[in-house]
Specification:
It is a single chain. By secondary structure, the protein is mainly α. The protein has 5 helices and no strands. It is flat. The termini are far apart.
Length: about 180
Amino acid sequence: MPSIRRGRKHTLPISCNKCNTGNKDFTLSLLPYFAYLNLTVSSMSTIYRAYIHNDMPMIVFIVYVYFAYFVLDHCFTAFNKLPPNENSQKKEFLKFTICVLSSSILFGFACQFATFLSLAASLSIFVVVIASSLCLFYVYFFCDDPKTFRASCPNEKTSGKKNRSTKPVSEIALVIEK
């Protein structure tokens, strides 16, 4: 059987479909629907088990996480559609919403797990959640500089010119030795 060699397909990131406009491969477009289906089935089964055990705070938490996930996904989609070098109120609002929703979901999970863990384990979970929230805030509000944006699309060509302000490694080594 002869082997047919096909061109390399870029499948990551999933949301970068605009990068492969010539490629008509839509197999990854169904992937989010499977995630939504999995989230729905898992949420419904957890809500049912919580209802059986009369655990109303768990039901409220699962419903919140379920809807917050969809709002968060919508915010990510809207944020990724904006031009990267744009500095607008809408972009700032989306950044803030992404940070608040992500942090609230993380803190909610930490609070739910803290009820049946030891004090040391609960504190370590809260430390991880606080560090993750701060890292997310830092990435979205301090590292998101439109001037340093580089497109990650595989078909985009970059210029082959070197930056004239960079020094060769041998010059740097001479400066360090002195």
